[in-house]
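Fig. S4 source data, part A: sequence.
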Amino acid sequence: METDSVLSMLTLSDYGRRGGTNVQGPIVKLDYMLFPRLTLTTKGYFVNFIDRPKGLTNSMVNRLQFDALLAF
C-alpha cells in the first residue's frame, strides 16, 4: 500500500512491520487440503519500507504464518 493511502488501523496487521501503511512487498500463499474438512495454509510476507523513516534500516522483513482451517 502506498504511504497514507488508507488509515493505519484498517490495514492488514500481519503485513509488514506491525501492519500500517508505508510498506510494500509480495505475499506468497500455499493451501493444501489434508482432509475434506481440514485445510492447511502457509503464507510468506516479504516487506520493505516505501519511504524509509530516519534512523531505521530498510532491511526486508520476512514473516512466515501457518494456519489450519477446520470446516464443520
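Fig. S4 source data, part B ends here. The chain has no helices and four strands.
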